[in-house]
Amino acid sequence: MGNDPGNIGIIAGGGQFPLLFLEAARRAGRTVVVIAHKGETAPEVAAAADAVCWVKLGQLGKVISFFKANRVSEAVFLGSITKTQIFRDVLPDLKGLTLWNKIDRKQDDAILRAVAGALEQEGISVRESTLYLRHLLFPAGLLSRRKPTKEQRQDIEFGWRNARAIGALDIGQCVVVRNRTVLAVEAIDGTDATIRRGGLLAKEKAVVVKVRKPGQDFRFDLPATGLATITTLRSVGAAVLAVEAGQSLLFDPEAMIREADAAGIVVVGVTEREDGTLDF
C-alpha cells in the first residue's frame, strides 16, 4: 500500500477529454472520482465514474469536501466550460466567492491557477491534463494529403506571430488569416466560433492557426482540435489548419484527416525553433 497513489479526481467540463482520461486512468489502476458541471459534462462521464458529484460553477467548497470524502490525492482539470456561463450560470458557495474576490484578472489562467492553488492548500495535487494521454498530443509535420502553397505558408507564419501575441495577453489561442490579414481573433466565444467569424469574412481559403499560449500551464486548457474542427472549417470553405505540434491535443485523428482530405483541407503540425523559425 505504500506505493498507492490514491484516488484521482477529475474536474470535468464538456467534450470527450474527461471520458478518455477516465478510461486511461482506470487502465492504470486508479479509482476515478468526478466533479461534473451541470449543463457541460457529458452523462457518460458521470456514469463511468467510481463516484460523482454534480456542481455549478463556483461551488469550490463542495468540490473540496467531495474530494476529501473520497480520499482524492491528485486532481486534473479536463474538458471545456462554455466561457459565457461565467456571466450567467454561476452559483458560488462561500469558499468559491472568497476565492473569486481575490482574483484580480477574471481570465482563464488566473482563475484556474487560483482554483488549483486552493486545492493544493487542501493537500490535493493538481496534475497535468496529459498525465495518461501523452499519445493524444498533436504530431509534427504534414498530416493531410494536400500541402500548403507558398502563400499559405506565408499566412501560417503571419498567423503564428499574431496567435502568439494574443496568447501572451491571455485572450485566446487561435487566429484566422488570409493574405496576411487577421480576420478573427479567438476570445471568450472559443475556436469554432472564431473560425466561423473569420471564414465568413475570408469568403473562402481562410488559414486557421492555433498555438499554445506562452507559458501555458499543461494542467489547464490545452488547445484541442478534432473532427468537429474540420467540420467547422469545411462549412466556411477554409483551406488550412496549422496547429502547434506537441503542445495541443488531437482527438479522432483518423476520422479528422479523412474528413480533411475529402474537403481538400491542409492540416499541419508546426514546430517553432529556438531562433523563431517554423518547421512544417
UniProtKB/TrEMBL annotation:
<protein>
    <recommendedName>
        <fullName>UDP-2,3-diacylglucosamine pyrophosphatase</fullName>
    </recommendedName>
</protein>
<dbReference type="InterPro" id="IPR041255">
    <property type="entry name" value="LpxI_N"/>
</dbReference>
<dbReference type="Pfam" id="PF06230">
    <property type="entry name" value="LpxI_C"/>
</dbReference>
<dbReference type="InterPro" id="IPR053174">
    <property type="entry name" value="LpxI"/>
</dbReference>
<dbReference type="InterPro" id="IPR043167">
    <property type="entry name" value="LpxI_C_sf"/>
</dbReference>
<feature type="domain" description="LpxI C-terminal">
    <location>
        <begin position="139"/>
        <end position="268"/>
    </location>
</feature>
<dbReference type="InterPro" id="IPR010415">
    <property type="entry name" value="LpxI_C"/>
</dbReference>
<feature type="domain" description="LpxI N-terminal">
    <location>
        <begin position="7"/>
        <end position="136"/>
    </location>
</feature>
<dbReference type="Pfam" id="PF17930">
    <property type="entry name" value="LpxI_N"/>
</dbReference>
